[in-house]
Specification:
- The complex is a heterodimer.
- Chain A starts with 8 loop residues before the first strand and ends with a strand.
- Chain A has a domain of 158 residues: P-loop containing nucleotide triphosphate hydrolases (Rossmann fold), CATH 3.40.50.
- In chain A, β1 and β2 form a beta hairpin.
- By secondary structure, chain A is α/β, with parallel strands linked by helices.
- In chain B, the strands form two sheets. In chain B, strands 1, 3, 4, 5, 6, 7, 8, 9, 10, 12 and 13 form an eleven-stranded mixed β-sheet that branches. Chain B has a two-stranded antiparallel sheet with strand order 2-11.
- Chain B folds into two domains: 171 residues, no CATH class; 203 residues, no CATH class.
- In chain B, α11 packs antiparallel against α13.
- By secondary structure, chain B is an alpha+beta fold.
- Classes of the chains: A alpha/beta, B alpha+beta.
- Chains A and B meet through α2 of A and α1, α12 and α15 of B.
Chain lengths: 233, 385
């Protein structure tokens, strides 16, 4: 635990480095990344393919581990947590939105949204209330009994957003959330994310290639070859 | 509860694949059950043997006979309570395909020594007092529709000629395993006929059955009987009925071992098939498991999903296989009723079926479970899309 982080900073990244083994060689992906993200901020991470955007997002969300540096989220240095502690931490603090929605195909929209709450101590009735509230935020209360295959791409992404916010996490991480959607659906999703940020005060960190998506963000940070750069590469 | 829901729905999401896998397990369990039952029949004669019955035969081989004159000398051996004797007759009814066992016996003493052949008193007396009379088991009578008083003709193979009998009794077995597909008739009828037709074969018996009071007397009585006829023209070999039956079983023991090996091979094959199916399933769902982990679900949740599905499929197939084993056993018994005694699936076979069902599910689930639990989230998510 590290409580030295200022109250308005929700994510503090310091000197983070990450590399992978590829074909017997060490390939550096991120080098000496430092970044602060304010509470309630809507941050877009941009950069060419292979620049390390998704890797940085994964590190912030605690689904990958750093080689060096520290990542403090909401007062917790997640670098020091083991697998089990990280799982608990993710369940409580992070909501995920993926490019391909990643809904569980054998569960209904309601059941998909309910998933993160199954790890809490909420009663069945309380879970139902939370799920209905989350689905109403994304305007899909009437589709709660539909399976993912019975929903359009845009609707599936809205269910994924409902699942991301249902446990009221500290941060929402979104990896190319509009990458698989048509222009109209993409616009709706971005509008919804904007609402979550402005009306509900959610901190959002979004990786995108799409400049129109990035326009919705308060801040845009660029990555190139694993290094944070000041200007659009 | 949630894990249950997930693995049930996952199993049903690929209905054809799951259905075919369950069908494969069903057939494997069915085959295992039937093969085990067939293998078990090899020892049914041993199981129904009594420890207080000894069998005396020619020491050289069962195909050689013993003189009837041994009867009185055996009776005088200390510890011998009663003695009976008989010959394997090997007669054929109508055609060789209608095979059933038939033996010439001394009725009074034989029925006393074999109380498991239950016959009403009047039928017993009718049989004893009619030298051309015979008795048959209930199954045999019902197979050929025989009724009391019917005249039966057997064609002799070991003892040539047409042999006529009058059916005087139909016995039932005291146990399910008691042989009811056999015909007994008077040894005297056989002997008197032989005296007229082939005198040199008369006054010979194939075996003596000796009744003793206590099983622990068996070794001493056997030794005493065999010592009596030492260095005679027809030396004897006396052994317990169980040992005698084991000798028969061991003649075809290699077949039994082969059947048992095949039954286990069937299980190993289906284990490999289910393991392959589960590996394919887990590989397809690696992304799904990564998503669960992303949301905070832990290794044991993932293990529950994979293992649960594997066990669900294997146990469902196992139960279907067990349920089908009984009607299939009846069918098998009807088809092979002439060659096999009562085709009864034992409880121990069912327990083995269940055990193997669970074992197949566990073994098939191990590799995919380890893989699903160990997958790095970032690697799993990369598989999606």
């Amino acid at each position: 635990m590290d409580n030295s982080q200022p109250q308005h900073t929700v994510v503090s990244i310091e000197g983070v480095a990450k590399s992978y083994w590829r074909g017997g060689q060490v390939v550096p992906v991120l080098e000496d990344i430092s970044l602060d993200i304010e509470r309630g901020e809507f941050l877009a991470l941009m950069g060419p393919s292979g620049s390390g955007k998704s890797t940085l997002l994964n590190l912030i969300a605690g689904i990958d581990s750093v080689d060096a540096g520290s990542i403090i989220v909401d007062g917790v240095n997640i670098v020091g947590l083991d697998e089990s502690e990280l799982a608990d931490w993710r369940a409580a603090h992070v909501g995920f939105i993926f490019q391909f929605y990643n809904l569980i195909p054998v569960l209904t929209a309601f059941e998909n949204v309910e998933l993160p709450l199954l790890l809490t101590s909420l009663s069945r009735r309380e879970r139902r209330e939370h799920v209905q509230a989350a689905l109403s935020v994304v305007s899909l209360q009437d589709r709660m009994d539909h399976y993912p295959s019975q929903l359009s791409g845009g609707q599936q992404q809205r269910v994924a957003i409902a699942r991301a916010i249902v446990s009221d996490p500290s941060i929402l991480v979104a990896d190319e959330p509009t990458g698989d959607l048509d222009r109209i659906s993409a616009g709706e999703i971005l509008g919804l994310m904007g609402r979550l940020n402005s009306e509900f005060g959610k901190t959002i960190i979004m990786v995108t290639h799409d400049p129109r998506a990035a326009e919705k963000a308060h801040t845009i940070r660029y990555l190139e070859k694993g290094v944070m750069v000041d200007v659009h590469p | 509860m949630f894990i249950l829901k997930i693995f049930f729905r996952n199993a049903l999401s690929h209905r054809l694949r799951t259905g075919l896998t369950i069908l494969g397990i069903t057939i494997a369990i069915l085959a295992f059950g039937l093969l085990r039952t067939v293998a078990g029949l090899w020892h049914i004669g041993v199981e129904r043997s009594l420890a207080t019955r000894l069998v005396t035969r020619n020491a050289i081989s069962l195909v050689f006979s013993l003189p009837i004159s041994y009867y009185d000398r055996i009776r005088q051996v200390p510890g011998v309570k009663s003695v009976s004797y008989g010959n394997w007759f090997g007669g054929v009814y109508i055609d060789e395909k209608y095979f059933f066992a038939n033996e010439a016996i001394e009725p009074q003493s034989f029925l006393e020594l074999y109380p498991e052949f239950i016959l009403s008193d009047d039928q017993k007396q009718a049989f004893i007092h009619d030298r051309k009379g015979c008795i048959v088991g209930k199954k045999l009578a019902s197979r050929y529709g025989w009724k009391l008083g019917d005249q039966l003709i057997l064609k002799g193979t070991i003892f040539p000629g047409q042999w006529e009998f009058v059916l005087r009794g139909i016995f039932r077995g005291a146990e399910k395993s008691t042989e009811e597909r056999v015909l007994f008739f008077h040894w005297d009828y056989l002997n008197e006929t032989l005296k007229k037709t082939v005198p040199r074969r008369a006054d010979q018996v194939g075996f003596y059955i000796i009744g003793i009071d206590k099983p622990e007397q068996a070794a001493q009585v056997s030794q005493d009987v065999d010592r009596l006829f030492k260095n005679s023209l027809a030396e004897t070999l006396t052994e317990t009925e169980k040992a005698f039956q084991l000798g028969f079983a061991s003649m075809t023991g290699a077949i039994m071992v082969a059947i048992q090996i095949v039954s286990y091979v069937v299980i190993v094959i289906i284990m490999a098939v289910v393991a392959n199916t589960m590996a394919m399933t887990a590989r397809e769902r690696i992304g799904q498991y990564a998503i669960f982990k992303t949301m905070g679900f832990k290794g044991y949740h993932i293990a529950g999903m994979v293992f649960g599905e594997s066990l669900l499929i294997s146990i469902t197939g196992c139960i279907c296989g067990i349920l089908l084993t009984f009607p299939a056993g009846h069918l098998f018994g009807d088809l092979l009723g002439d060659y096999l005694p009562s085709f009864e699936v034992k409880q121990s076979t069912i327990y083995m079926d269940l055990g193997f069902g669970v074992l197949v599910g566990i073994v098939a689930g191990i590799f995919p479970t380890v893989r699903a639990v160990k997958i790095r989230i970032a690697d799993g998510l990369r598989r999606i899309g």
